[in-house]
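Replying to the earlier thread about multi-chain prediction with a worked example.

Input:
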Amino acid sequence: MRQAGRYLPEYRELRAQAGDFLTTCLTPEMAVEITLQPIRRFAFDAAILFSDILVLPHALGQSVRFEEGTGPILKALTRASDIDDLAVRGFIDRLAPVYEAVRRLRADLPAQTTLIGFAGAPWTVASYMIEGRSSKDFAKAKAWAYRDPVSFQRLIDLLIETTADHLICQAEAGAEALQLFDSWAGVWPEGALRRWCLDPARAIRERVRAACPDVPMIAFPRGVGLLYETFAETSGAEGLSLDTTVPLVWARDHVQTKVTVQGNLDPIALLAGGEAQREETARILDTLAAKPFIFNLGHGILPETPIVHVQTLVDHVRAWRAPA
Amino acid sequence: MRQAGRYLPEYRELRAQAGDFLTTCLTPEMAVEITLQPIRRFAFDAAILFSDILVLPHALGQSVRFEEGTGPILKALTRASDIDDLAVRGFIDRLAPVYEAVRRLRADLPAQTTLIGFAGAPWTVASYMIEGRSSKDFAKAKAWAYRDPVSFQRLIDLLIETTADHLICQAEAGAEALQLFDSWAGVWPEGALRRWCLDPARAIRERVRAACPDVPMIAFPRGVGLLYETFAETSGAEGLSLDTTVPLVWARDHVQTKVTVQGNLDPIALLAGGEAQREETARILDTLAAKPFIFNLGHGILPETPIVHVQTLVDHVRAWRAPA
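Result:
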């Protein structure tokens, strides 16, 4: 999950002085500084690049801006011909500041701190490109896919190709692991999920592997429940990020046997702190930490989370030892 | 799922003339007329009472109103003592118009049309009572449960008791089946899900069974993924409503072996219509319809759904026959 954010006063201070959110993402010194902020405070084992999944549609020529309190606003794609108008040629040059930030980070970070790059998965990015903003039911994007799967597939294919290139460039600039966020995977029936989320994840994994065979990928198909096992078996990702709802013992027995798992503390348990945070954290560690595992939240940290709860969490995870 | 709604012109017309939404729910002639509208058009096998899950907090003395475009607005509970201020005494009298509507409906409906009553499950209702409105992350309600499980349990217990009474009164007035909607069940880690959703569903089932042993109950723990199997095994409900994301073959093998299943067409496939609607519907029927099954949507119908798609769906489901 994003490590920087409004729960950190130094982040709020920097963002108050900076321009709009997208410019912040695309200004290397800003992206570097924000990426380093939580590492300075907590010395996490890994740093995740400060960026946004919507830098890709921006680089493809779609109008993207962020409104305080509302979230992203895009000039929505409304018909198949809008897909053909996307500016694929040269899009990677428009993302050069991201790769520059990765290069500087790899130089600035302690050697033992893994640098993680990331991108949005095709379905999640496509949903923003078609809805034009956050959505409750994704009616426009899903109805497009149901009504005209041919043009929707064209958009997904374009996103597979450009997302893979974007990840490869991050890896070549120094990212040592890559995460693919499919935040809205959990809205599809199984067949559509396989077509619009699982197959694209696998296609991206294969393209990135061909270019950078040694860089592992973590997929985060949030909310796919039972299908986590299928993702573990067939996405090709070396790691899977579990959302908060995934039962731990099941994940240990059905997912962790196939891939490294990451997760999955409820961000609201971290917000609440105290006994609930301690119990939920202990349950996760005791069930998953003895096998290949990355401790993380199950979703993004909330802005109102007390910093002291994060420090308590880090101390708790660091102190954990496998039962003798 | 709710059968009436803004996709029907006769509903829009009636609502335009009527007062606020809650008054419409609590005026028997209105509730009866709106319940009958979709039955007149489509002659569904069952009619679901037109009402709302928030009539309960209203009857408990909490301020509840509905704003067009925003949804429900409640005067949020903010501290444990607010729970003790709820007006449990006499709450059932304030719901008398609901039971009057049920009585009239049982008289007006064709004998072969099953009448389904319903209520919100304790967690989902509690989430509105604490958040005061629809929420993206349920941070206030979940943080309350994590920080102060004792008072949160008191609220849930109060809702178990009053919800069971509300369902019993509907059954005694003539409802022949009861549905318990836990629309926001899918936001909890497993342990909390068992405590705040599964245990209350079972407690309600037991109370209702003691009073009305012959009235079956359908639970809808939306978004609980794998835990659907646990609900089938231990909630005591005779039926489970599957959300759109539940894989069909898994549901057939792990859930339908234990209870009747209901579901789960993606409302957006119904919005889209055409080939996608046909394919998704056929997949559901072919996988589930040979065993105890109620065809339904996986979530509520969208207001912009063309009526002709609903008619096509009804015809499709009616024409289905088990392979010889």
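The interface with chain A takes residues 137-139, 142-143, 146-147, 149, 186-193, 223-227, 244-248, 250, 264, 266-269, 271-274, 276-277, 280, 283, 298-299, 302, 304 of chain B (CB under 8 Å).

Feel free to reuse this layout for your own posts.
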